[in-house]
Request: fold
Amino acid sequence: MKLRDLADRLHCRLERAAGPAGLVGNEDADIRRVAGIEQAGPGDLTFLANPRYQALLGQTRASAVILAASASGDAVRAVPATCAVLRADNPYLAFAHAVALLAQATPPAKGVDRLSSVAADAALGPDVSIGPFVTIGSGATIGARTIIFPSAVIGAGVQLGDDCVIHSHVSIRERVVIGHRVIVQDGAVLGSDGFGFVKQADGTHLKIPQHAAVVIEDDVEIGANTAIDRPAVGETRIHAGAKIDNLVQIAHGVSVGARALLAAQVGIAGSTVIEDDVVLAGQVGVAGHLRIGKGAVATAQTGIPHSLDAGEFVSGYPAIKNRDWLKASAIFRQLPALKKQIAELEQRIAELEQKRPRE
Reply:
């Protein structure tokens, strides 16, 4: 794609940069891909959103770079670029759109592969792509233009919307309902049994049947090897626009709010409500029957044993305000020296007490 055409598609202002030998950059340059600022070469588009890397701007070999268009980009303007510049209000967002425009993805062929197994009463929308060794159960419905990659299993009665992408080895259990434009990465399991047991008089554990609903709304992405469990009663629901990373465990009866972000290895126990726009970083654990308020943020490896108000920013275990945790962690590193100092002070006090005249 010509650089000037790419600038138009990204709604960026194209500038020729002021290099040591005059203006540099060619609006007719062919742009083939997006690359990191250090790895980019001729024909590449790169971007700079983090000021930490602005010193590399004068060294890149890229044909063009995406830079901030706002006042915050003034510091970057002082660094001479060696290529053309695309000015964007949000460089990182422009980068994301550029990757989508320049990606060389090859969609799989439309139709049903002869090595797949599709129940006679399953309903397939127009222009679907069903790969080899896919199994689609009785009464399932697959929406228009949905892609199902090899070796995925779609259970009986599943409702799968339009324009979804189901990657290899995904298991979507019976009666799970999935909206439109949902992406499920390799190995995820949707609708697995919730972890529900009752201890009996003889000490054994009786399984509680888990047959209730799992609902995945529109524009959700679910990462590789993530498990979303069904409950015994009620429903497990992932609301529209939520993005879930790899290796996440969402237990029975959990509600994950719209646009929530759950990073890798998050675990959420049963019947907890995660409200809209919550962010849980890697390895956060949330206990059951809690409510995590809208827009709350938990940093990596936080353990949350109690409900959080809207907008809270927490860290540590048990979760406390992030600012308090930062102060506490700074003190924690000093504990050996503080312990030694206290022991020395106690010894001095004891010696002074011994020398004190008796009344």
Remarks:
- The mean pLDDT is 91.
- Helices lie at 3-10, 74-77, 91-102, 322-332, 335-355.
- The chain has two domains: 3-102, 111-323.
